[in-house]
Amino acid sequence: MCLAVPARLIAVNDAIGTVELTGATRDCSLLLVPEAKVGDWLLVHAGFAVQIVDEEEAQKTLEAFKELEELEEAYFAGKAEHS
Amino acid sequence: MKKLTLQEKQNTADTLLKRINALHEPGETVRLMEVCGTHTVSIFREGLRQLLPSGIELVSGPGCPVCVTDQTYMDKALAYAEREDTIIATFGDMLKVPGSYSSLSEAQTKGAHIHVIYTPLEVIELSKKHPEKKIVFLAIGFETTIAVICATVKAVHEAGLKNVFFLVSHKLVPPALRALLDRQEGHIDGFILPGHVSVIIGEEPYGFLPEEYGIPSCIAGFDGLEILSAIANILEQRKTGNIVVGNTYHSVVMQKGNPVAQAMMKEVYDICDDAWRGIGIIPNSGLALKDKYAAYDAERALPIELEKPSLDPKGCQCGRVLQGLIKPSECPLFGKSCTADHPVGACMVSVEGSCAAWYKYGYSSGGSTWED
Amino acid sequence: MERVRLVHGNGGRFSHELTERFILKYFTNDLLAPLHDGAQFPVTAGRMAFSTDSYVVQPAFFPGGNIGKLAVCGTVNDLAMNGAVPQYLSCGLILEEGLAFEELDEILRTMAEMAKAANIQIVTGDTKVVKKGEVDKIYINTAGIGMIPDGIDIGPHRVKAGMDIILSGAIGDHSIAVMGQRFGLDLSDSLKTDCAPLNKMVHAVLDKVGSQVALLRDPTRGGLGTVLKEIADQSQVGIKVEETAIPVHDEVQSVCDILGYDPLYLANEGKVVLVVEPEITDQVLQVLHGFEEGKEAVLIGKTLDKNIGKVGLQTAIGGVRLVDLLGEDQVPRIC
């Protein structure tokens, strides 16, 4: 119900940040994420950053997906060996 | 941030689907409600339904702010739009929503000043550009949008603007879920919880789902894989009996949400009962501006009397659709008098409305079936 | 700064001045030179295509082009989609009182440049001036005619099941370039309209394997999604396309993400969808790749003998999404 996209904070001017998306930059209010700093990834909804993306967690999610895949491969490889 | 390659995506989807199949007992029907309209759209756009085992049914919920906005609210917005001295500022979503007698886009063709904005902060520029006009902002939305509107109310206050007014109809998600469960009309086996609402409120407000109702749930992101992994999470809770509020969107959903936003909401709004379209009054599910901000409350600062009573469209089953009690195609108006081009109910208007999604990705594309 | 006045449209001395200073500065050819009430030219036997379009884009100037570029390329491309070799173009200008001469000059200069690139002659035209506020700066109508070479027969009746669907490049660039300025987005310089005359590229394909090309469509307003659904309906076939095969530039995708737009329904002004016999797909791609406008050309799908009238988009994770015509215009939304 709420569209939001991740974008990198590239400049801060008081409570207004400039965020960079591929191909476009735009201003974005930092009122809801006062601790955001340049270089952070922010989740942006309707012109406001609503959260700082936890890059480590994002990375873990990706890795969990990849591990899932490897486990599965190992599982099926194991099956193939036994059959 | 890194992304998965296409191949990795396909492999992960395969793996998740295998896991879902393994967790699902053949012959068992599991009804999962995706609360959020953005999830509804993703599910259609990724073609998820036909990938799932046939016993897993996905039911769309009430998470479309435009759809649940009450008819009286639209009529009030239209009454403001008719005023010569008023500019309506609104998200694009609201343009086509039918009130009892007209819609904003219809009013616009008759000369009403309606300004579509991307961010609520644009009301500040509008106010400065048109000091002689009153700017009425249609403040709708769930917690995610509420947070940004709160910040806007404060910014307007701090800027000392006297010609900006908020017509408020915010809705809160957790009380709505409780109301759905209390009505006990439809059977729901689990909730796919809205990712971006949860960014603001965190995991805790959903605690009553496992604790009081013993119902599994999982907070999900919005791409196909994230939705599949939430479904797997819910099925796993069912299988193990360890019922919790799952979260597969850790990158942005913290256990405590966004405390700054929550504090701001408490500072600007009081919680109140509120009317949901087609559903009725849900206790503690709405917000009203605190007295401190009454000067910005359109209803208090610019009182308006509706000349004619608000009427819900005859025969429209939006309310039952929003509660997951019927599928859009089971409404007698669907595809007949109610179509995407000539919508009767709000659920057909919003891009995220379940009727609109069923219509666009099913009905008007030539039927919902695809032969492989 | 000099500006267009209402008298520039009254047919008298001021009109002559405008014609000489601007129109004849850029549009010069033997057929236009007599400045008669119309152009006269000989015709050859065969089949001819005739097409017209009106251009009302706002803003009139946008990254990578202006309304003049659209007005020439749009009609040239419509002719090319009929398999015709564009020959002659008319140009009707409706100018708003107050339009700066330098803007008019730039638009006409672009039109001349595009006409040259497309090898078409602007042979007749008309100019009207209307009161301030009655149009936004400038509206242009162009109509064009072209000859269809022998052996070329392009149309929905030729599309059968089992054919390949080729797209000449990435979608959505034009729409995003034109409207991206709104809503506070500062677009990077790499985002430009894709507007270009396609006739040379299209005829390079037709010259080689024209008899096996069934249909050509340019996905302008309504976008690729609408064009595919129209083909499925008109030709009574099913269509399956691979979502991951459809090129979308990262810049376009990210603007779409933030505004909630779907690239399938964004307008393009320099793209063509080709429906061809599968035997020639490789050859067609090879020819397209030889042109700047076609260097990202790719096979995106096939026509089917089932799912008649439907378009199924196979998604990355293996699902199938059904594609409909564009309905209401896309507006930025929160949900």
UniProtKB/TrEMBL annotation, chain A:
InterPro entries: Hydgase_assmbl_chp_CS, Hydrogenase_HupF/HypC. It holds the Pfam family HupF_HypC. Signal peptide: none annotated. It comes from the Bacteria. Belongs to the HupF/HypC family. This is HypC/HybG/HupF family hydrogenase formation chaperone. It comes from Veillonella rogosae JCM 15642.
UniProtKB/TrEMBL annotation, chain B:
The keyword Transmembrane does not apply. Pfam families: HypD. Coiled coil: none annotated. InterPro entries: Hyd_form_HypD, HypD_1, HypD_2_sf. Keywords: Iron, Metal-binding. PANTHER family: HYDROGENASE MATURATION FACTOR HYPD, HYDROGENASE PROTEIN ASSEMBLY PROTEIN HYPD. Belongs to the HypD family. This is Hydrogenase formation protein HypD. It comes from Veillonella rogosae JCM 15642.
From TrEMBL, chain C:
Residues 44-148 form the PurM-like N-terminal domain. Residues 160-311 form the PurM-like C-terminal domain. InterPro entries: HypE (IPR011854), PurM-like_C_dom (IPR010918), PurM-like_C_sf (IPR036676), PurM-like_N (IPR016188), PurM-like_N_sf (IPR036921). Belongs to the HypE family. This is Hydrogenase expression/formation protein HypE. It comes from Veillonella rogosae JCM 15642.
